[in-house]
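Renewal narrative, Specific Aim 1. Our central claim is that a sequence can be written position by position from structural information alone. The example that follows is taken directly from our test logs and has not been curated for this report. It begins with the structure tokens describing the chain, in the order in which they were read.
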């Protein structure tokens, strides 16, 4: 072993020893997960985690560092510095000013609520998002969590104890997600996790959460592989089986078509899950899958693939693309030029489809978990628009639901095991953006999906909108 490595090990050993000595009393007095004040979740993370190298520490923040890249307001930057130095009053003032300039910033709102807690006792949850890989979904998820935290703390918290939120950036990378899950599991302040984004990432992290008996609720992972993966793993988004069944019925009953070609990503659990469930549903409904095309094939050619699909008798194109293959899916949309009707899963519910797909994507039908116009009786569309000064997506709504579920668990029993027991109970129910939140024994949510289509409109700046399909 080199002298340099020995020195690094000695330094790390000393740091761990100091951390354990400094937090020994905390370990004995906070079995319930209450943060007694004075020790931040970030500091606890640093002291406890074997992955507490600089690269991992940079992926988690309760306010001491910015995780959202790009330009931030000067006041937000000053606020982060103030939080790091324990000057919470200055941080609060700066974050309030920053939010007046950028009202759509969920990171700032989470840090503001955390700063308002300061050194008070608090409960802590974490939210893991793909900041470095899929920025828009990351922001959408953070908005849902921020709104739930904001509402709870403004109403007095859980029996007077406010909620603190840690943000973790996993880049939608399964390996990084596993490391983050391990670090969060070892931080006993963290009582529950909202995440992760992609199904592959959630599957990887779920193994760690299950081993450590820490509840995790994914608002966006739909792969059927997550069903029954463990008693601590839940999701507020319906599984791909619901989406596949809805799309199959629409194809055969509304479009009166029986033959489909599927475009998918063979490296994505979500994409393969949706493809397989759609295939099963189509054959069960009397239809047929005439061809499959892998969007990640090095030789993939959108024009040739669409031509081949038509030659093989396809009457419909089904896009089971995920976030990493949205560009290839858009190529299919463009070269199809509206020759065949288009179906898609929630992976295609992106601004890019509206912005770049444009006229070629008109009348595409997507199966998504929730749409802001689909439930006029809900208060959430109005309250979210007032908070963010913009309409929110299904990812925001279901992240809000995940936070609401954890909060309901905290109210019943604010411990890791207590939350798991609460969410697993047959009579558990919480109210969220999309109605009642109830979980099946598999951890799945028993809820239908919403079909939407793309039409010309002015609700977005792209000239096209996602519009709910009613009467199905």
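The sequence written for that structure reads:
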């Amino acid at each position: 072993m080199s002298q340099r490595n020995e020195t690094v090990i000695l330094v790390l050993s000393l740091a761990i020893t100091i951390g354990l000595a400094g937090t020994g009393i905390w370990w004995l007095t906070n079995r319930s997960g209450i943060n007694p004040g004075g020790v931040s979740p970030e500091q606890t993370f640093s002291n406890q985690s074997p992955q507490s190298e600089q690269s991992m520490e940079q992926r988690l923040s309760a306010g001491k560092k910015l995780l959202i890249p790009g330009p931030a307001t000067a006041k937000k930057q000053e606020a982060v510095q103030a939080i790091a130095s324990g000057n919470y009053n200055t941080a609060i003032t700066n974050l309030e000013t920053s939010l007046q300039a950028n009202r759509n910033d969920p990171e700032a709102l989470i840090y503001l609520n955390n700063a308002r807690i300061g050194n008070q006792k608090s409960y802590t949850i974490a939210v893991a998002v793909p900041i470095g890989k899929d920025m828009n979904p990351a922001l959408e998820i953070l908005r849902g969590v921020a709104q739930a935290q904001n509402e709870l703390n403004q109403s007095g918290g859980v029996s007077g104890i406010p909620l603190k939120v840690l943000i973790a950036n996993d880049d939608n990378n399964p390996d990084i997600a596993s490391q983050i899950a391990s670090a969060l599991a070892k931080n006993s302040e963290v009582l529950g996790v909202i995440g992760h984004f992609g199904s592959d990432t959630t599957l990887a992290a779920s193994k760690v959460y299950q081993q450590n008996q820490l509840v995790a609720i994914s608002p966006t992972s739909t792969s059927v592989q997550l069903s029954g993966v463990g008693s601590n793993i839940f999701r507020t988004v319906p599984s791909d089986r619901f989406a596949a069944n809805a799309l199959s019925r629409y194809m055969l009953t509304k479009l009166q078509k029986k033959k489909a070609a599927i475009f998918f990503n063979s490296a994505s659990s979500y994409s393969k899950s949706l493809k397989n469930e759609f295939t099963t549903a189509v054959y069960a409904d009397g239809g047929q899958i005439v061809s499959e095309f892998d969007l990640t094939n090095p030789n993939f050619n959108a024009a040739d693939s669409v031509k081949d699909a038509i030659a093989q008798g396809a009457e419909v194109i089904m896009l089971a693309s995920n976030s990493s293959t949205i560009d290839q899916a858009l190529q299919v949309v463009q070269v199809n030029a509206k020759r065949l009707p288009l179906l898609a899963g929630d992976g295609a519910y992106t601004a890019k489809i509206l912005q770049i797909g444009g006229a070629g994507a008109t009348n595409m039908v997507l199966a998504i978990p929730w749409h802001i116009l689909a439930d006029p009786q809900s208060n959430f569309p109005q309250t979210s628009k007032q908070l963010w000064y913009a309409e929110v997506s299904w990812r925001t709504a279901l992240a809000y639901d995940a936070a609401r579920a954890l909060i309901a668990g905290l109210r019943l029993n604010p411990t890791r095991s207590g939350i798991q027991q609460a969410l697993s109970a047959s009579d558990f129910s919480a109210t969220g953006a999309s109605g009642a939140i109830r979980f099946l024994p598999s951890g799945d949510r028993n809820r239908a999906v919403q079909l939407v289509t793309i039409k010309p409109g002015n609700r977005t700046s792209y000239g096209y909108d996602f519009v709910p399909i009613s009467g199905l």
